[in-house]
Amino acid sequence: MPMRIVVEKVSYIYKKGTPFETRALDDINLTIEPGEFVGLIGHTGSGKSTLVQHLNGLLLPSEGNIWVGDLDVLSDKGNLKKIRQRVGLVFQYPEHQLFEETVYDDVAFGPKNLGLSPEEIDVRVREALTMVGLDIDSVKDRSPFALSGGQMRRVAIAGVLAMGPQVLILDEPTAGLDPKGRDEILEQIAAMHRSLGITVVLVSHNMEDVARYANRVLVMHRGKVVMDGPPRQVFARTKELQSIGLGVPLVGILMERLKELGYNLRTDVLTVEEAGKEILDWWRDRNNA
After folding, report:
1. What digits encode the pLDDT tens for the residues 96-132?
2. Which of 8, 45, 171, 230 has the most CB atoms lying inside 10 A of its own CB?
3. What is the Cα–Cα distance from 133 to 95, expressed in whole angstroms?
4. Domains of the chain, first to last
């Protein structure tokens, strides 16, 4: 069943009532529609991680409220368990949360706590490991700590997927990985989004990754959402992004520079592939003129 998340007038204050009181979120209003792939960006301390922890009830608003489908986080504490089943949150360096002796047991931990039958648990473990691109027969009996960093990251994500969430939130899921491991993780996430129609919220400092995969970008600054729109629209606001300490995809900067040098090229490209096509089309047009 399609499920939207509605954030209404939400503020969050750390250490409220003390000399160290900090307003981490400030009157945020937004709706995340079913099936969206949302990129969430902002400078360190902008409130990104605080916001995503509100989306599955790990943190509760100091002001305002949040609805996950037909459930709201404040009316009934019994709602929180249901909300956390619907909204899976993968923290930065999720492999630090691995603890069981085998990969199978680690991925099965959540479904067991749901009280599912052994047969259903087995189905969920197998499906989750397949979704993250791991061969269950090769890894199920191995210690998760004997795997590569990228494989450990995938096992941790599989453990969240095995809970059957409708929304998957990933807070810097590629932090610390080499380029190959990063690309593999992101491609698996994109494939899940396409095949399952699952809503994805990706928190990232990598503008290229957000530009490539997200269909909507939220920009946070000082606890507020200051931009919200399609990637091409948001990343076109180069000067505004730079004024709050953010960059744009490097390929966009390259195209801007080429245009300054007199090449008649679009500057609103988001990926290397788009830039390559634009330059090739320009070259062909120039030679055919």
Report:
1. 888 899 999 999 999 998 889 999 999 999 999 998 8
2. 171
3. 16
4. 1-90+167-177+199-231 (3.40.50.300), 93-164 (no CATH), 249-289 (no CATH)
